[in-house]
Write a structure and sequence with these properties.
This protein is of the alpha/beta class. It folds into two domains: 160 residues, 3-Layer(aba) Sandwich (Rossmann fold); 201 residues, Dehydroquinate synthase-like - alpha domain (Dehydroquinate synthase-like, alpha domain, Up-down Bundle), CATH 1.20.1090. A six-stranded parallel beta sheet has the order 1-8-5-4-2-3, with helices on both faces. Strand 2, helix 2 and strand 3 form a beta-alpha-beta unit. The structure holds fe (ii) ion (FE2). Fe (ii) ion binds next to helix 7 and helix 11.
């Protein structure tokens, strides 16, 4: 059985001003965002709203300890709506804050039964990457386990996903680069997933196409075209969220999590470090599979190449984010074995979505080849 669904109501506004006019911020609203976003877009319109600044609790990607600290500072306060306005880390954290959570966040991640949502949830992405606004998934670093873990509960879907191109027009290029590469990986991993359906593949293809066309424009016309193409990248990220929300992500994400958690590498950058090598292993193990052949046809059309598509892809992506060996992030030879074990024991949910099953030897080999 294949199932496909899009749960949040999707609202699109050209500007934040128009969004606020429709949404009536006020008492009972909790806004989780970054200080610069609040100063630029919300200050003056959200007097009665309880505002939390993400960076007051964490400097990088979200962890269980950080969410616990937020819960602590909100103790005794009542909210009927939670707004997450920011990148994937902010949106994932807002999802957890919309739950009726009483236990510690690490316990929450160990709970087998989903907790109910207790507050309306509005998700407003300000990067073009995670697609978190469309999914029922929240990823946190669990400090005691030294890795990232995901929850996938229907109660984590936003009630509204709000797309506002104005918010992504001025993204610093490195943030744009790592976040949009994450969206591209969502498109590719969901396309190859055994859980994919014709409907999810339609969104996967559209994600890949929009992003690679956008990257080619950047290569040809320069980084300033980002202001014009921001809306397309924002849509691509949302499509990617719909695609992987239904078909799942796979080993690229699984292998990137230990790197992200232990060495605090941004999610999209950690994905890119693994991306093409995982595709090459797929190619080695089963070059004749239908979905990989279709993907390669799509990539060779978009990249206008008849040569090795993986090399052409890497050449294009290197103009967006520089690919570095794992050693450049401080990964030691001894850690490669720990990473492999973390993937094999803690990332079964993602590894099950591989195009072709990868065993411990495959994973260790990928890490070794990417090390130096
Ligand atoms: Fe991702």
């Amino acid at each position: 059985m294949k199932e496909f669904k899009i749960v949040p109501t999707i609202r699109m506004y050209p500007t934040v001003k128009e969004f606020l006019e429709d949404t009536h911020p006020g008492k009972g609203d909790l806004l989780l965002t970054n200080r610069f976003l609040w100063e630029n877009y919300f200050q003056g319109s959200t007097e009665e709203v309880r505002v939390l600044f993400y960076e007051d609790y964490a400097s990088g990607e979200p962890s269980d300890e950080m969410v616990d600290a937020m819960y602590e500072s909100l103790k005794g306060e009542q909210f009927s709506r939670v707004w997450g306005v920011g990148g994937g880390s902010v949106l994932d954290t807002a999802k957890i804050l919309s739950l009726k959570g009483e236990e510690s966040t690490a316990q929450l991640f160990a709970t087998p039964a989903p907790l109910p949502k207790s507050r309306e949830l509005l998700l407003v992405p300000t990067t073009c990457g995670t697609g978190s606004e469309m999914t029922n998934i929240a990823i946190l670093e669990i400090r005691s386990l030294r890795t990232k873990k995901g929850l996938a509960w229907d109660s984590l879907y936003g009630d509204q996903a709000v797309l506002i191109p104005e918010l992504v027009k001025g993204l610093p290029f490195p943030v744009f680069g790592t976040s949009s590469i994450d969206a591209l990986v969502h498109g590719v991993e969901s396309y190859l997933s055994p859980k994919a359906s014709p409907l999810s593949r339609m969104y996967s293809r559209e994600t890949i196409e929009k992003i690679l066309k956008g990257y080619r424009r950047i290569r040809e016309e320069g980084k300033q075209v980002l202001a014009e193409t921001a809306g397309e990248f924002l849509l691509a990220a949302a499509y990617g969220g719909i695609a992987f929300g239904n078909a799942g992500c796979g080993p690229v994400h699984a292998l990137s999590y230990p790197l992200g958690a232990v060495h605090h590498v941004p999610h999209g950058e950690a994905n890119y470090a693994m991306f093409t090598e995982v595709l090459r292993v797929y190619e080695e193990k089963d070059p004749q599979g239908e979905t990989l052949k279709e993907l390669k046809t799509l990539l060779s059309e978009l990249l206008e190449t008849k040569e090795d598509v993986y090399t052409a892809l890497e050449e294009l992506l290197n103009g967006i984010v520089e690919k570095k060996p794992l050693a450049a992030y401080g990964v030691t030879g001894g850690e490669l074995e720990d990473f492999t074990q973390a993937v094999m024991t803690q990332q079964g949910r993602l590894m099950a979505n591989a195009y072709v099953p990868l065993d411990e030897k495959d994973v260790a080999g990928i890490y070794r080849r990417l090390w130096k």
